[in-house]
Amino acid sequence: MRPTASRQRMRRFGAILGVLMMLGAAAAAATWAATPAEVASPTGAAPSSQVSPATEPALVAGGTQILRATERGVEAEVIGETEAAGEEPVVTEPAPESLGFWAGDVSPTWSRTFAGVDASGDSAEDVVATARRTVYVTGSLSGGGRDLSLIKYVDGVETWARTYDGPAHGEDGAFAVAARGTAIYTAGQRETKSGDADLLLIRWNSSGDRVWTRAYDSGARDYDSGRDVAVDGDGNVTVTGTSTSVTGGADWVVISYKADGTRRWVARYDGPAHESDEVRKMVLDSAGNVYVAGYSNSATSGQDALVIKYSKTGTRRWARRYNGTADAVDEASSLHARPGGGVYVAGTTHSTLTGYDGLLLAYSAAGTRLVAIAESGGFSTDVTEAQAFNDLEVLPGGDILCGGYDARFADGYGIDRFRAQYSPAGAWSGNVWEHSPGAGNEWITDLAKDSQGGIYITGTWATSPTASQIYTQRVCDGGTNWRSAWPVAPTAKDEPRGISVYGVNAYVVGVHYVSASDYDQVLLGYVY
């Protein structure tokens, strides 16, 4: 089985960090990498890296740094956090929404782990909440190979667990789950008897019965894998992923099925270099149009970020590529439907002067690019630094919040949790860094908005160079705010893989290490 999306993200971190070390500290610092001509910033929208504080706040062992836009320029603030690494958080149940309420450090309402029969690693890759207290978790379980898994929980109690063991009894797993009514869909891959992998889509019902199974092979008998799945208002289900072509390159593939399993259409995309093109995320709009984001190799400009729109019937409406000034590695990691039509896209871009930067793009429904921002941080613009946005969410009022990491080696921080906020027109309004006293690296993986306008942010929090917690926050302007780090004393690097919100309740899934080499599925419930 190929690496999961989270492992691919780690592989990207490693590649970026390797380049940074080769560049060295002698590279010239710059305040802003000029946006390429084809991706000019919107008029009047100043990139955050045009603004830097006159004096950088002193380092603290662990805490939060905030850089905000003000009428006079910027305001920098350091908030120290005095709790010792590994100290058990105070158990405080979040109160109902109230003006500016800080609930402090909280524990999950409940936590559940699930293990396969072998001590070789089990992972929860995605979760969907279908009611206030009902969730479905998908991933893989070990047991003489690896089987796709789907588990239903109600109020944190396991209702049933199902597995799928493919024809080769080898490496099978799911990376995404979606639901509509009583129909639950898992998307992933299965190993065949000939040793290749098929893209796999399964429909289940709420009782755990498998309704139908669909496998897709391009004809190359190589690697095909589903990365994301979504259901439209008519009950049609769309799966997207990566598929090896008969000529050997990796292509995008998007497949739509009716609720009864009848295939509606298939769309493939092969980039101009006919090399590696890989999908990261997909979103549907209210009309059933499909937006897919990822990357595509170019014959002349390295790896480009790519966004494609398909109609409900599978017609490709437009494809938009983004190439940074360095002609190197650019990638779209996530996307979100844009109010008024189109999408916002988060990812990474490589700029000539500032190195790897966080990327925010906005496209209209017609494919017009409205915003293109390369975010280089604000405290340091050294080319040896690196920023990336792994996910984004639209705030009440329309602002965009992007979350990921900032590798700030030149100023002594390491890899920190990092988020940045922008107006719908792309105007920057603030950056926030969070770093633990654990001398390790941490980042944000996922964001999700609840029904009261709060934003759940999950990722990692280092307790040492070799161990990390699953760190989840709720931030809400004028509402209830809290943070949660689980487990209290991690054995290794626990990590979230997905989040789902229903009402104001949030559910986080990922991997929990029970030893240095064995990990289990984990589900954390934050229930009001």
Give the gist of this structure.
By secondary structure, the protein is mostly beta strands. It has one helix spanning 5-23, and strands at 63-70, 73-80, 102-105, 110-114, 123-131, 134-142, 146-154, 157-164, 173-180, 183-191, 197-204, 210-216, 224-231, 237-244, 250-257, 263-269, 277-284, 290-297, 303-310, 316-322, 331-337, 343-351, 355-363, 369-375, 386-394, 400-408, 414-422, 428-435, 444-449, 455-464, 467-475, 481-486, 495-502, 505-513, 519-526.
How is this structure best described in words?
The protein is mainly beta. The protein has a domain at 122-270: Neuraminidase (6 Propeller), CATH 2.120.10. The protein is 4% helix and 52% strand. It is built from one helix and 35 strands. The chain has one helix spanning 5-23; strands at 63-70, 73-80, 102-105, 110-114, 123-131, 134-142, 146-154, 157-164, 173-180, 183-191, 197-204, 210-216, 224-231, 237-244, 250-257, 263-269, 277-284, 290-297, 303-310, 316-322, 331-337, 343-351, 355-363, 369-375, 386-394, 400-408, 414-422, 428-435, 444-449, 455-464, 467-475, 481-486, 495-502, 505-513, 519-526. The chain has a six-stranded antiparallel β-sheet with strand order 2-1-28-27-26-25. Strands 3-32-31-30-29 form a five-stranded mixed β-sheet, with no helix packed on it. It has a four-stranded antiparallel β-sheet with strand order 4-35-34-33, with no helix packed on it. The longest helix is centred in the first third of the chain and has 19 residues, at 5-23. The two termini are 38 Å apart. The model is unreliable at 1-5, 19-59 and 81-99 (pLDDT under 50).
